[in-house]
Every structure is written in C-alpha cells, then in structure tokens.
UniProtKB/TrEMBL annotation:
Residues 44-71 are annotated as: Disordered. GO terms for cellular component: extracellular region. Keywords: Carbohydrate metabolism, Cellulose degradation, Disulfide bond, Glycosidase, Hydrolase, Polysaccharide degradation, Signal. This is Glucanase. It comes from Mycena sanguinolenta. PROSITE patterns: CBM1_2 (PS51164), GLYCOSYL_HYDROL_F6_2 (PS00656). The keyword Signal applies. Belongs to the glycosyl hydrolase family 6. Substrate binds at residues 118, 120, 251, 254, 290, 350, 378, 382. PANTHER family: 1,4-BETA-D-GLUCAN CELLOBIOHYDROLASE C-RELATED, PTHR34876.
Length: 429
C-alpha cells in the first residue's frame, strides 16, 4: 500500500496560503482543484489556476440509515478491554515455535498485545462473527465489556497509487456493488453482538490518495467510487450504534506537509458532513502501517522541510482546521512498527523498512485529549508487499535498498521481518 506521496514543492490552490508561483526552471502542473505541483522543466515563474471541480463527498444521503443511538461521550477506548484476535495470536505463536530462548519468549508476548484485524477480503468476514461471539462471552464473564478492533479494507481498485495491496474488487467489474455487499456482511455480523464495541479504521490510504494522487489515472478513475463506498461504510456502521469509526488519514509525511493540510481537511470534512455527520465517526487514524514516531525531540533527517515531522505535530496542525470546518475529530495513531527511527532513506519509503522495531504499546495514556489511543494497526510480521519483481503486485518500493528482502506477498507472514521487529522493539518486549 502506498504510504507516502508528498510533494515538497507544491503550489496548491484551495486553502493554500503559500507562494503561488514556481521557481524559475519549473512549471506549474495542475492535478486537481486542491493540488498543483511545480515540476522541473520549461518556463519558470508560472501561475496556473486550477479548473477542475473540488473533491467533495457525495451529496445524497437520502437512503442513509439514521442511527438512533448516541455515542458515549469521550474516549471510546475507555472502560473496555480489547479482544486479542486469535488469527494474529496464531501467526505469532507459529512464528515463535521456530525461535528459541529470550527471542522466543519476547516473540510470544506479542500475541498478548492488542492489534487490529484486517478484513481485506470478503471471505474473511465470517470470522468476525466468531471473534465477536468470543468477545461477547469474555465481556460477560469478566464484567468488563470488550472492544474488537477491525480494519475495513476492501475498496474496489484498492491501493490505487501503488501495486502491493491491490485488492479483490475492480470498479469495472461490479466493484461498488461488491463493496456494498462486503459492508453489508460486516454489518450483519456486528448486529448480532450489540454488547461488543467495535473500533474500526476505515480504508487505509484511500482518502489520502484522493488528496495527493489524482494525477495517477487509477486514483482519478476511482475517486467517485471511493467516496461513495467510504460514505456507505461509515453510514451503515454508524447506524449500528456500537461501532466507533476512524477514517484513515495517511501520516505526517503525506498529508502533514503544510500544502496538503488544508486540502486534506476539506476532503475529510466534506465527506463527513455529506454523510450526515455520523455521530459514531469519532475521527481519524494516522500512521497506519507506517513508521513515524508519535512525538520526537530529534526529527529524522528525512523529514527535513516539513515542520510537522511527527504524528502529533501533524495532528495538532490538522485538528483545528477540521474542528472549525465542523468535524470535531479525535485521533488514534499506529505505533506498532515505530520503535526505531532514522531507518529510511526517504520519507516515502513504506515497504518492509529494514531495521524496524515494535513500538510504543497501545495505550490511552497519550498525554493529549485529541488522541484517544496509541494503537497497533498493522500486525507486525505481516508483509507490506512482495519483492518478487515478476509478481503481479510487485511495487518498486519493495525492491528499494532500505526494504527487507526477499519479501512475500502483502499480508502474508514474513518471519525474518517479524524477528527483527521483536529484537528491535522499543521499548523492549
Ligand atoms: C495487505 C493486507 C493485509 C494488511 C495487514 C496490507 O498491506 O494488503 O492484505 O491484511 O496489510 O497486514
């Protein structure tokens, strides 16, 4: 999946208050109404006014289910225990069986750390029912209600600006209807267990791609469908009354660049409002499957030029813009693989970055009211993308010199990478 497409030298239009001309030697190229880029070449000093229509969410909410329930005030992670998904625990246990000594002990401890479960195919949806039933029973016997953490990840033409995580549905082949059915199936499972709270991250990378990557044909073609699908997802989940959702918002090195903040805020807010301001959409998730630190006093040199060089700086820059536009977003931040910094050659490198370590454990003690929880969203040990250059989903990022190789297909187990995460965990396991 694409984890960063940033343009350091940007001339954006809507909401952009910086310079509106390119330096001599580069030309302004308009990608969309939010986003223009100074590309090297020909006449410098040009100013171009975008002519395309701004990206906004679909405006029809007529058929949207109206949730009758009111979310609990405050942080939805509080007052609950988080369910440990057997799927990841089984992966970790199998991996640990091949290890010995302290590495094995440390590896096994990962199975006890709450990690989101990705529903990246429709075939996996029935397993959610099993997890929810299990969680419901655990909640009843302990007296403390449970949370099941899920990632909704099956858009048609998924991962439109990269190749590694291309999904099962295609827009050209009934993709939107297939996606609606996928959401309906998730909803049918969750409906059976109103006593279990679900925390959902919605569609990693999709909206961020609509902010910065509409110059990629596949993303431009997917724009309307992504918006319709994400809107459907949040409305249907909202109506259940026990699902708190966070829309994926890329990370500091992607939408955190000053030129991208305002276009991003505009897209999130319009989507949220056009969906009817669903009350269980709690906010945004950042750094999902990425490697950035939550806070740091010593910025990684690759972040140079971006004042928002960590996730909290990004969040603190984005939140007020969202708030004033009518989206009072709170945040969760993935730190699952952020234990080691200064390991990337470029901030845009996202694939199995070598030398990574498990990071800060999930906690609601974030020190910041805006941030509900540090979470582990990417199950550490599951691969980001194959390094096999002849594979259909080969993405060049997975062949870079800072990408661990040989690497299997995205989502499948990558034993050597898992062992590195265990050994480099910070704090240590
Ligand atoms: C893959 C998914 C997988 C997820 C979590 C993504 O990169 O495309 O198949 O479920 O990572 O590991």
């Amino acid at each position: 999946m694409l984890k960063a497409q940033y343009m350091a030298n940007v001339e954006a239009s809507i909401g952009w208050t910086g310079p509106t001309t390119c330096v001599s030697g580069s030309t302004c190229t308009v990608n969309n109404a939010y986003y223009s880029q100074c590309l090297p070449g020909s006449s410098g000093g040009t100013t171009t006014t975008p002519t395309t229509t701004p990206v906004t969410g679909p405006t029809t909410t007529a058929s949207a289910p109206t949730g009758s329930q009111t979310p609990d005030a405050g942080n939805p992670f509080l007052g609950h225990n988080i369910y440990l998904t057997p799927f990841y625990a089984a992966e970790v246990t199998a991996a640990a069986a091949n290890l010995t000594g302290t590495t094995q002990t440390k590896a096994l401890s990962v199975a006890k750390i709450p990690t989101f479960t990705w529903f990246d195919t429709v075939a996996k949806v029935p397993s959610l029912g099993t997890y929810l039933a299990d969680a419901s029973a655990q909640g009843k016997s302990s007296g403390t209600p449970m949370i099941v953490e899920i990632i909704v990840y099956d858009l048609p033409d998924r991962d439109c600006a990269a190749a590694a995580s291309n999904g099962e549905f295609s827009i050209a082949d009934n993709g939107q209807a297939n996606y609606f059915n996928y959401i309906d199936q998730l909803v049918a499972q969750i409906k059976q267990f109103p006593d279990v709270r679900v925390i959902a991250i919605i569609e990693p990378d999709s909206l961020a791609n609509l902010v910065t990557n509409l110059s990629v044909e596949k993303c431009a073609n997917a724009q309307t469908t992504y918006l319709a699908c994400v809107t459907y997802a949040i409305q249907q989940l909202n109506a259940l009354g026990n699902v708190y959702s966070y829309l994926d918002a890329g990370h500091a090195g992607w939408l955190g660049w000053p030129a991208n903040l305002s276009p991003a805020a505009q897209l999130f807010t319009s989507l949220y409002k056009n969906a009817g301001s669903p009350s269980f959409v709690r906010g945004l998730a950042t750094n999902v499957a990425n490697y950035n630190s939550f806070t740091t006093n010593s910025p990684d040199p690759i972040t140079q030029g971006n004042p928002n060089y960590d996730e909290l700086l990004y969040i603190n820059a984005l939140a007020p813009v969202l708030q004033s536009a009518g989206f009072p977003a709170h945040f969760i931040v993935d730190q699952g693989r952020s234990g080691v910094q200064n390991i990337r050659q470029q901030w845009g490198d996202w694939c199995n970055v070598k030398g990574a370590g498990f990071g800060t454990r999930p906690t609601t003690n974030t020190g910041v009211t805006l941030v509900d929880s540090i979470v582990w969203a990417k199950p550490g040990g599951e691969c980001d993308g194959t390094s096999n250059t002849s594979a259909a989903r080969y993405d060049y990022h997975c062949g870079l010199s800072d990408a661990d190789q040989p690497a299997p297909e995205a989502g499948t187990w990558f034993q050597e990478y898992f062992v590195t995460l265990v050994n480099n965990a910070n704090p240590s396991l």
